[in-house]
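Contributing new records

If you add data, match the layout below exactly. Sequence lines come first and carry their own label; structure lines follow with theirs. Keep one chain per record. Anything else will be rejected by the validation script.
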Amino acid sequence: MAAVTPSTTKLISVGNLTGMIADFAATTDDADTWASGIDNIVFVIPVQEDTAGTQAATGAGASFAADGTITFHIGEDNSAVRLLVLYGAAY
């Protein structure tokens, strides 16, 4: 487990929520965390952006805590990940 930071971020509007798209390099491992600093996270959607070595290693998941820390759950270490974080007061 290591702390990671995105290489790029982009803000978007999704209805009454704000979205942040964050790209993480192909060094992201299972159980890595990102201290996003984002309040009121509603949903996180991770996508593995590179090809896994095996079918069993395909996939990316993520969980989030109230303090804005996001933890990655990735089928194969050293994966590139694109993450959409939806947040806002209205849900």
